[in-house]
Specification:
Blueprint: H1 3-22, H2 29-43, E1 47-53, H3 54-57, E2 77-84
Antiparallel strand pairs: 1-2
Helix pairs in contact: 1-2
């Protein structure tokens, strides 16, 4: 592997490394959601948003698999964190 390929591989793995180091610091879901958005921007894009099911904030488990689609409605979601790259 030449130097260019090594550099590209390191850049590709950097967001994963940073996420692994940052996400274990807090049990607070809002803090963790913000950390996720902070890692994603600008590493993977200019804008990131994180939405969590309202059930997470209520202390419940979010609905995993609906019993039947006939009576299923999507869970309530709440925008929790956002990050955007600074503009020119």
């Amino acid at each position: 592997m030449d130097t260019t390929e090594q550099l590209r591989a390191r850049r590709h793995l950097q967001p994963s490394r940073e996420a692994a180091m940052r996400f274990g610091d807090s049990l607070d879901v809002v803090d963790t959601a913000q950390e996720l958005a902070d890692v994603l921007v600008p590493a993977l894009g200019d804008l990131a948003g994180v939405e969590l099911a309202q059930a997470v904030f209520d202390g419940d488990d979010p609905l995993r698999v609906p019993y039947t689609l006939m009576y299923w409605s999507p869970p309530m979601m709440r925008g929790t964190a956002a990050r955007w790259a600074p503009g020119p």
